[in-house]
Amino acid sequence: MTAVFAAPRLTLASAPNRQLFAVTLAIMLSALPIIVALALDDRVFQDDNVWLKPLKFQVALCIYTGTLAAFAMLLPEDSFASRRWRVWIGVVIAAIGYELIWIGTAAALGTGSHFHVEGIWGLLYGLAGASAVTLTALAATMAPAFWRLRSNPLHLSIAVGLALTFALTVLVAGTMSSRTGHYIGTPITGARFPVFGWSAEVGDLRLPHFLATHAMHAVPLAGLTGSRSAVWVTAAGFTALTLWCFACALQGLPPF
Amino acid sequence: MTPDQLFQLSSPIALLGWIALAASPLAPRAAQIVSAAAIPLLLSVAYSGLVLAFWAGTPGGFSSLPEVQALFTNPQIALAGWLHYLAFDLFVGAWEARTARAEGISHWLLLPCLALTFLFGPAGFLAFAILRFSLVGKILP
User: Fold this and answer.
1) Does the distance separating the beta carbons of A29 and B133 come in below 8 Å?
2) Domain that holds residue A247
């Protein structure tokens, strides 16, 4: 009797997307001087070294662009190489550059970036919001190319994951940006999740933002099983988890 | 000429070189003549004259940070240090422009690196090295 479960076929059709690969490398290398600054600078902003936030954003953004560059390997060569695609990816790279320069400049000045609305910072924060939506939209715009090949469960999972990343991130991060800070409630003990630094005491919208944005990683993991139903179940479950954590945060509670 | 007057004169001269680099796609050869040779060499002549004339009478040295700081308490030597920055930053900027052109790196991407090299020399050099490695995969000259 032959095995009924076929091993998932991970066929790489092309090289990583050139533009996204280059920007991933550039973000990674530009973290080096930030790490040096982190080691040398004693200044603290909201209980963290001023350089921790720029470093976190560099890590997050190079995971984002690196993942998208890698996903493109599953599509035929030149899927994102037309002039329109190159211009669009260029716009996204500019948005990422703006985001990092804005956060880095605020860190160098020892001041806030997100939620900082005094004077010129209000304008810069508004621009950062537009940049953030732009760069997240890249995930959504790449999704249809994978959806067309959805007979392959992995391509299906990537399409769904990318679409969820955009939809959930815009929902959670959009809500967060309409408020005056990422906390809902006032931390007293300052208890926090290790590494990530979310409050373990009050509502912290950064936690559902993290989950929302990583739908593009969680759902494709299910795609690797080769089962279409696993993809849909994971997508539904992950969406529910994200929304539940979002609801907890809005009520001023940590989810765990 | 006082150190102040020489300082006042040196900045616009260097700036001219940076403008030439920013506009270098229009006249690459001329930009290199101005920014990789003429202006850096002019600044180097002024630097060398200042060091020859004032080094001996200045306290301090190279062997500790306080000694280096002491060097710069002399205005003529501080001016020489400033000309050193202007000359070498521009020379590096000219190398960036030349390399970008030879390796097909977009001038639009070069421009922020030039700005950074103009303002914070080594940070701009690093930015260009990162850009070049990311796009062309090369780090060596």
Assistant:
1) yes
2) 149-256
